[in-house]
Fold this sequence. Notes:
The complex is a heterodimer of chains A (55) and B (339).
Chain A: H1 2-7, H2 9-53
Chain B: H1 2-18, H2 27-45, E1 49-50, H3 53-59, E2 67-71, E3 76-78, E4 83-87, E5 93-97, H4 101-109, E6 113-119, E7 124-132, E8 138-139, H5 151-178, H6 181-212, H7 221-241, H8 245-273, H9 300-338
Parallel strand pairs in B: 1-8, 5-7
Antiparallel strand pairs in B: 2-6, 3-4, 4-5, 6-7
Helix pairs in contact in B: 1-9, 2-9, 5-6, 5-8, 5-9, 6-7, 6-9, 7-8
Amino acid sequence: MIEYLSQHPHVIVLLVTLLIWLGIALYLWRLDRRLDELLSKFSGKTVEQDNNTGR
Amino acid sequence: MKFLFYLLALAAGIALGFSGGIQRRTWRRAIAATIIVGVGIFGALEPPIVGTFRDAIVEATATPPTVTVFIPRGGASLLNDTLLECTDYAGATMMCIVRNAEIVLAQVNAAPMLLTGESISHEVFRVISTDSAPTIMLPHIPALGEKARIMYFHVPSAWAGFFAFAVTMIFSLRYLRQGKHDDDVIAHASALVGTLFTALAYISGAIWAKFNWGKFFNWDTRELSVLLLLAIYAAYFVLRANTPAPARYRMAAVYAVVASIAALFLIFIVPRITVSLHPGSKDDANIGPILSPEHDALDLTKAAVFSIMLAGFTVLYTWMLSITARFHILRQRLLGQIS
């Protein structure tokens, strides 16, 4: 693997580029999931509150 | 000229990224980041890496020994069947040994062309293959070859990381002076995004180091200083997570200001005053292609692509900062409302 990469510098460039985009994509995906959890938690609570107050 | 490109790119990136305020959603950031980084990727991946005869002489002792040289229109004259007097894009001349009819044909048409080959002496360049000339090309950096393209991703990532830590300091100072809770949230979000970019620069640098210096980690001063920087910001998150709420924000803000001073020292001073594998270290005549005042390293194509990537990563950072900050502000408001 290392030998193959040493002989193909374009693949190393591609690997580094993909790594950076993958890191950014993973960060955004995780943030998106946390936002989803927050929204579902919030909507669940408001439904409870609405039920308690009878509205 | 090159430094003007860098400064303009940074100014444009910061202006596009911060206009309208970090807490507001704007399509400007998304569009600007996509266009700028897209153009930057094209610039970094598409055009061929092209050197001068001087690069070919330097490369003759390194691996791989082949260098592509650009011969401008009318830059070569036919002397006999096998020898051409060639002029590269820097204006240097050299005798080229060729056994390829294409070259003769190209010469007859006086078209610009690319010659790939190696220097076999200070006067003679042996041509291995030929190609038609592209519209734009990236200049060769001796001993880096195609791997030089990593510079257009690795350095802007590191820049975005450092810029993020500077923004953390600014918003922490604003929080300490004005006490606005949103400033603390933006400082925290910026530290998160900055740590991500610094970690990506660190990992991409480690891969580059493996294929240029032989090991992923070489106990190099800059490698160590950035690792320490990551540890300092990891401690920032630990401090925030483990301090009770009223004291948390002020303590984190003070820590962020002190950490940014350490960051300045670790990024700009330590690698310059110690011996390091990175360009620009103590006892190193080579300041590196980005900051070098030498004509060969000052190529405008490279400076333009690098500047586009600097601007692109700056806008990309502000976009990610805006999303992260708005998420944390929303989270705190919602949790405060429902608990």
